[in-house]
Amino acid sequence: MVATEAPVAVVTGAAEGIGNAIARRLAQGGMHVVLADIQDHKGEMAAREIGGTYTHCNVAQENDWNALADDLTARFGRLDVLVNNAGINPAPQDFADYPLSAWRSMFEVNLDSVFLGCRMAMRAMRKGGAIVNIASAAARKPVGDMAGYCASKAAVCMLTKAVALYCGQHKLNIRCNAVLPGSVETPLVDRLRDAAPDPDGARKAAAARHPIGFVGAPSDIAGMVHFLISTEARFITGAEFCVDGGLTL
Ligand SMILES: NC(=O)c1ccc[n+]([C@@H]2O[C@H](COP(=O)([O-])OP(=O)(O)OC[C@H]3O[C@@H](n4cnc5c(N)ncnc54)[C@H](O)[C@@H]3O)[C@@H](O)[C@H]2O)c1
User: Fold this and answer.
1) Are 228 and 179 in contact (CB under 8 A)?
2) Atom of ligand 1 nearest to the CA of 215
3) Which of 44, 99, 121, 238 is the most buried (most CB within 10 A)?
4) Residue 12 dihedral angles phi and psi, to the nearest 5°
5) For the whole model, what pTM was predicted?
6) What is the pLDDT of residues 99-131, one digit of tens each?
């Protein structure tokens, strides 16, 4: 077992994008961060850079979560924070042509993962802790050709509330909150824009859709997560925080 006095945090989807920024922020705050992802090379590099630990975990797979739980017990004997960040948003698709297989895989990665992660955390956070689920502004503001994404993220918000209530009712001392980002410059968003007929126009239009006039940076989301896991947020549970430049107004 690694002798660490530092609180231990697991951040899923931490090899790049928002998850990577969250992992960095938590490590800067003195936590030992376990970066969980399926991009092993990027994940290992990121873990080395921030002094954390990388683990391969496909968040849609129950076996991978079980292995992660065993690993946490063996290495650290504790878990204090879980950030369910990993998610996918494939290119927009016409609703009438939406394949059931795409719908199901969206829900596996975006929603089943949060269920599996929260369940693991409830078992592993023996002295209590904090869970933050990364949903999306799309949970509140629908996008017609992203039905699966919107629905999966809206479900993450309700799951967050149910988990918070359960943890309170069972005196687990675990808080659970959701963060709903607007557009944030990450590889996920780059891929969506690059697939658009006019990528530059799409970038400008994205900024214009946000009343604040620009899209977010991963650090904007990381700052909110860092606040939510801190003792300053000790009275906050089951809540949703839009970090979206006013997109959902
Ligand atoms: N970027 C945005 O504008 C935006 C807006 C709202 C919500 N979000 C949400 O924020 C989260 C992070 O988004 P991002 O933009 O950083 O995405 P990204 O694609 O840039 O990074 C996602 C990370 O998750 C990992 N990942 C994907 N599937 C996985 C799986 N099955 N198991 C483990 N890891 C997996 C990827 O390897 C990658 O490292 C997602 O849940 C996304 O829906 C993003």
Assistant:
1) yes
2) 3
3) 121
4) -90, 150
5) 0.97
6) 999 999 999 999 999 999 999 999 999 999 999
